Amino acid sequence: xFSQRELDRYxxxxxxxxGEGQERLKKAHxxxxxxxxxxxxxxxxxxxxxxxxxxxVDMDVVDQTNLNRQILHFDRDVGKKKTASAEEKLQALNPDxxxxxxxxxxxxxxxxxxxxxxxxxxxxxxxxxxxxxxxDVAIAKKIPLFHGGIRGFYGQATTILPGxxxxxxxxxxxxxxxxxxxxxxxxxxxIGTIQANEVIKYLLGSGDLLxxxxxxxxxxxxxxxxxxxxxNPACEACGSLRTTKKPAREEK
Length: 252
Ligand SMILES: [Zn+2]
Known about the structure:
Blueprint: H1 4-9, H2 11-27, E1 29-33, H3 39-49, E2 53-57, H4 82-93, E3 98-102, H5 111-115, E4 120-123, H6 128-141, E5 145-151, E6 154-160, H7 168-171, H8 186-204, E7 213-218, E8 223-228
Parallel strand pairs: 1-2, 1-4, 2-3, 4-5
Antiparallel strand pairs: 5-6, 6-7, 7-8
The structure holds zinc ion.
């Protein structure tokens, strides 16, 4: 059931997927790990699309050096908790959704509980140890992990469906070293928007996901390519899961 305000807000997208599709978005709960460069466009687009419950987790405070890319946070937010800033902006963008902004470090001891009954996990992190942890929880709960990563003008994205596609460990068995890397704000803008697009398609059950496909973006050349990725039967994270087939594409 939608209020008149919601019907008006979602009118142009309901032309695409109707009230039934909008209902699917409204009933959904998406967990976003990180309220930074990727988390900003992801959470903004999921909020305006009407994803009913968004949990966003971050432990950082807004720093001046974040502002070239973390568009959820404004100059006036420097020094504020990113979760407080995120909650305020997302709730102002769409007061008809529920936003849970949680100020905590995602760790092995709390990840399963934090993610709770979410229908999907969005990887908007900047470090591989936490990404691998999210990957483990996605596999344990058999829910998708929407991966994105960036550096400079380059980015990548893929959608992990546990048991169907390779997991993050199959694709990237070893973590690259943690470092402060260069980045221009448009790169997480592009990659985060692709991740949000994947979430929306997954929730609607329509379109073709980046499942088993690693999307690679080169912003300097304005060139995108994709490489097919395969499960590693000996993967330490997902090797014990039996392979199930990719859901058939549903035309809309
Ligand atoms: Zn794996």
